[in-house]
Amino acid sequence: MLSALIAGIGGVLTAFISALSYGGIFVLMFLESANIPIPSEVIMPFGGFLAANNKMIFWLVVAAGTLGNIGGSAFSYWLGLRGEERWGKYFGITARDVARVHHWFDRFGPITILVAKFIPAVRTFVSFPAGMYKMDFKKFLLYTGIGSLGWSWILTHLGVLLGGKWQDIGKVMDRFNIVLLIAVIAIIVWWLWRHIARHRTRIS
Fold this sequence. Notes:
- The chain has ten helices and no strands.
- It is mostly helical.
- The chain has one domain (2-168).
- It is globular, with a radius of gyration of 19 Å.
- The relative contact order is 0.15.
């Protein structure tokens, strides 16, 4: 799936980066974290490829991606902070949805942000519910910054390793997503089993 997406829009994104350099990476990663599903799996590996060919500097690529992610995440957080009362009715956000968000963050805390930053698709939208939850902004920035730095470094480094075959990262990430999906399903099954076991213990 990701490999097909890269083939479809990769040319547009790489042309944008080629024209605007680090600024292009910053803007695209900002948008990617501001609820616009632009694949960072294209942006950062291409930056890594350019760094490998001495057309960019590796750590400046990582910095541009990280700062873009933090900026876009902060914007998404702000939307979530105001979303329930201003735009909730337009996006179908109900009181029940808000309650679910609060339950999730009450249970798992701000570590949710850090973990989500390494999950494709989820990472794009996780900041919005964090804003709805009214998570402490300093903690939000801390976990967002750590996750964004890690994700940007990994993808940029993969771009360096793959070199001219950087577009093959789609195949690599597709396999990663399958493993991730299995892991998520396993965690959900484990959580349900634990929840049911506790419930039965209380009844007995």
